[in-house]
Write a structure and sequence with these properties.
Radius of gyration of chain B: 30 Å
CATH superfamily of one domain in chain A: PAS domain
Low-confidence stretches of chain A: 1-7
Bound molecules: adenosine-5'-diphosphate, magnesium ion
Number of helices of chain B: 9
Largest interface: A-B, 46 and 43 residues
Mean pLDDT of chain B: 88
Number of strands of chain A: 12
Oligomer: heterodimer
CATH class of the largest domain in chain B: Alpha Beta
């Protein structure tokens, strides 16, 4: 059995996929943040420098207007040459235009536009501010530009508006470069991280796999040999802890087996104790026969022919006693488990013969309803007899006058079934589920240990079978032993 | 082996997603069009002015400085009346006088010297004069030197270079016409004497060491005191630069101008006015200037 559930991906692949995507997502997120914040910075910078250029240039333009106030000359020509000179000095400047208060273009770096009119919603707003404003615009003619609009005024005196278009080509190129650079470095870092991850995961999963192999082959009963221990530091510790746990488990398993053996033996001895009185009677009968034979021989020692007859009777009696003692010893003796194919009916007969005296004394009618032919199970005959003994003694305990016990054997699909039913006192419905509990007994001390059914169920369960009960208080009970063939 | 195929497929899908995402990111970062963001609009009421009132200014400062200091006064006046007040700059002091005479300007900011030397022949009349920071309608001219200079009195000027403002300003005439006479100092004892167009230029020349001493208005001198300049002599209090009208000036417009400027001190905009006027105005008459006129022109 594998410790890890089977999956489409190996542990390593899953580590790679999970951690890899985590790294990738984090890297991409970080790059995106850097990209957008740098871009904002660049845009702000570009705007700032465009505004600075415009502000600086606005000073001589305003000066021209002021000069015109006192000297009255053709300001359009002066401004025209001024802006063209300024534009020629800075290749980034795409256009400069100056509008008067009536929105007439009085100067433009593109001379064809001079004397045209320009009026849009922006100009209305411009009228009302004395601040410079700017925008990024994609112009049909000039491409990407930063356009600044500057009201030419001092306090409430306004001469017009100056609009400057400054190329944003370099800015665009810089942003593109930033994008390429960041993309490349992101890809490189991700690839690098994945490679490192790949190597680390190889090491880590190698150690883990080693451990898994060891755990899979682990047997509680076999101590691990030194060379099967993992070589890596990460797993060595785990492994030694595991070894410790294993030996503790093994120890408690042994203790459990010992305890179970003792219980079995105790129950068995109890059964024997209960058998003993009957056995004494059984032995008494042949003994009485032997004694009266001896008495007759002693009285009449010369009658050889008769004595020979008596001797034969004595021999028969001794054989009887031998047989009874053998039966008892056979049951009491603790042997090692030996599982073999055993005949079910034959074993039932042996148990009944052990209980003969009890049956006769209680005047119980035994009805046998065996399946004809041989039915057998794979089991230890000693243990199997113990189970039968338990259940039949329980039945004998339960029946009163006119007691009747029926024993039926048979087969149901692949199982062997032994039913032992009685017309005894029966079991209270609420008690039925408790009768298999160890130490549950309704009997007087000395009469019952409460272990019989618990031990029996243990034995049958070990064979892969089970014991079922049906019972009605006052009517009787039925115990059904089911064992796989 | 099937799981490998799965992984490769997965990687392929992920790469595809990344490529598409990268494409869209590229699109979005290279498209940075962004319209104009309007700054907060100043309160601006479109007003229909019934007429434009031109106010002349003598060119005592650079035009930029005049606009910065005087345009807020015009804005204030426009706000307070139905007229649009506009500055009319001139290239010379005389030009402003002629604008007044011709009625091209309703009133004009003149210098004290220019007024007293032109008031009679041109029928000019002072209507307002500015208050100084002590609430008095006077200013003084100051003789300034560098802080570590060894010039302490007029007589120390012997062999020194002197910077003065325009010959048409009181400060440009004070030493020669008043103090030198008092001290018995001969102007030819100076190594050099040069007139500059603006008061600030004089202070800068002294500060730079191009000239050993200079004369400026007390207000300008105070501006430079912390910067390495000290004043060693002050003139008598001189009535401040008047706002002047001529016979051609429209009486109603003048009234409005007077009333507005007399109450100007409480207006919050005075902070942005030329500091000469930021303490407000008081009424002026021509006789306020008679004494200084006598002193300058040497009349008895
Ligand atoms: N055939 C039966 N008829 C009635 N009661 C029974 C029968 N077999 C078992 N029991 C009940 O189950 C209890 C447990 O039986 P068992 O485990 O053999 O212990 P014990 O016989 O020592 O009491 C008995 O005490 C009895 O109450
Ligand atoms: Mg029992």
């Amino acid at each position: 059995m594998a410790l890890f559930p089977k999956s489409h991906f190996t542990l390593r692949t899953r580590i790679l996929l999970f951690t890899g995507s985590l790294i990738t997502i984090i890297m991409l997120g970080a790059s995106a943040i850097i990209l957008f914040s740098w871009r904002t910075l660049m845009l702000d910078n570009a705007i700032q420098s465009a505004e600075d250029i415009s502000k600086a240039f606005a000073i001589p333009v305003i000066k021209e207007f002021i000069r015109n106030e006192t000297e009255s000359f053709r300001i359009e020509e002066e401004l025209g040459s001024l802006i063209n000179q300024y534009k020629s000095e800075d290749s980034n400047i795409k256009f400069i235009k100056i509008l008067n208060n009536k929105n007439k273009i009085i100067a433009h770096t593109d001379w064809r536009k001079v004397n045209g009119f320009e009026k849009d919603s922006l100009d209305l707003a411009i009228d009302k501010t004395d601040k410079l404003i700017s925008a990024f615009i994609t112009d049909k003619k000039y491409g990407k530009i930063i356009e600044t609009v500057y009201p030419l005024r001092i306090a409430g005196k306004k001469w017009g508006v100056m609009k400057v278009g400054i190329s944003a080509k370099r800015l665009e190129a810089k942003i593109k470069d930033l994008f390429y650079m960041l993309s490349l470095s992101t890809v490189l870092v991700i690839l690098g991280a994945l490679l490192v991850l790949f190597l680390i995961s190889a090491r880590l999963t190698k150690a883990l796999n080693e451990l898994i192999v060891i755990l899979e082959n682990l047997d509680l009963d076999i101590e691990q040999t030194e060379n099967s221990a993992p070589k890596t530091n990460e797993t060595q510790f785990l492994f030694s802890k595991f070894e410790e746990m294993r030996s503790r488990l093994q120890h408690s398993k042994e203790e459990l087996i010992n305890a179970q053996k003792q219980i079995y033996q105790a129950e068995k001895l109890a059964s024997i104790g209960r058998l003993a009185s009957g056995v004494a009677h059984e032995i008494n009968n042949p003994l009485n026969g032997i004694r009266s034979c001896l008495y007759s021989i002693e009285k009449n020692p010369e009658n050889i022919k008769q004595n020979k007859e008596y001797m034969e009777l004595i021999n028969e009696g001794i054989t009887n006693i031998e047989f009874i003692v053998k039966k008892l010893l056979g049951f009491a003796r603790q042997k090692g488990e030996s599982i073999e194919r055993i005949d079910v009916n034959e074993n039932i007969e042996k148990v009944i013969s052990l209980l003969d005296y009890k049956i006769v004394r209680k005047n119980v009618e035994i009805i046998k309803n065996y399946k004809s032919g041989k039915i057998s199970v794979e089991a230890d005959s000693q243990l199997f007899q113990e189970v039968l003994m338990n259940i039949i003694i329980n039945a004998l305990d339960a029946v009163g006058e006119e007691g009747r016990i029926e024993i039926v054997t048979g087969k149901e699909s692949k199982n062997v079934v032994v039913e032992i039913s009685d017309n005894g006192e029966g079991i209270e419905e609420s008690e039925i589920e408790k009768i298999f509990d160890p130490f549950y007994t309704s009997k007087e001390p000395g009469q019952g240990t409460g272990l019989g059914l618990s031990v029996s169920l243990g034995i049958i369960a070990n064979l892969g079978g089970t014991i079922e009960v049906e019972s009605k208080k006052g009517k009787g009970s039925l115990f059904r032993i089911i064992i796989p063939e | 082996m099937r799981s490998y195929a799965k992984i490769f497929f997965l990687i392929f899908v992920v790469l595809l997603i990344f490529t598409v995402a990268a494409f869209f990111i590229f699109q979005s970062i290279t498209n940075f069009d962004r319209g104009f963001t309007m700054p907060e609009l100043k309160e601006h009421t479109e007003k229909n002015y019934s007429d434009t009132v031109f106010i002349g200014v003598i060119s005592r400062y650079t035009p930029e400085k005049i606009y910065q200091g005087y345009q807020p006064i015009m804005d204030f006046l426009s706000r307070r009346s139905k007229y649009l007040f506009e500055l009319k700059l001139s290239s010379s002091y005389e030009q402003t006088i002629s604008q007044l005479k011709k009625g091209e300007v309703t009133a004009a900011f003149l210098g004290t010297y220019l007024f007293v030397t032109n008031m009679d022949g041109n029928n000019l009349r002072a209507v307002l004069k500015p208050l100084n920071s002590n609430g008095k309608p006077y200013f003084r001219s100051a003789l300034i030197v560098k802080r570590n200079s060894d010039i302490h009195t007029i007589n120390d000027l012997k062999g020194k270079k002197l910077a003065l403002p325009s010959t048409l300003a009181f400060s440009g005439n004070w030493l020669q016409k008043i103090e030198f006479k008092k001290a018995g100092f001969d102007i030819f004892q100076l190594k050099e004497i040069k007139h500059f167009h603006y008061h600030n230029s004089v202070a800068k020349q002294v500060l730079m060491g191009n000239f050993d001493a200079g004369v400026v208005k007390d207000r300008v001198a105070n501006e430079y005191v912390g910067k390495g300049i000290k004043a060693i002599l002050y003139s008598e209090p001189i009535p401040g630069s008047p706002i002047v009208i001529s016979r051609k000036s429209d009486k109603e417009k003048v009234k409005i101008l007077e009333r507005a400027l007399l109450s100007a001190k409480s207006d919050s905009s005075v902070k942005s006015w030329d500091t000469e006027f930021s303490n407000g105005f008081t009424k002026a008459e021509n006789k306020d200037y008679l004494e200084i006129k006598k002193m300058i022109l040497g009349e008895k």
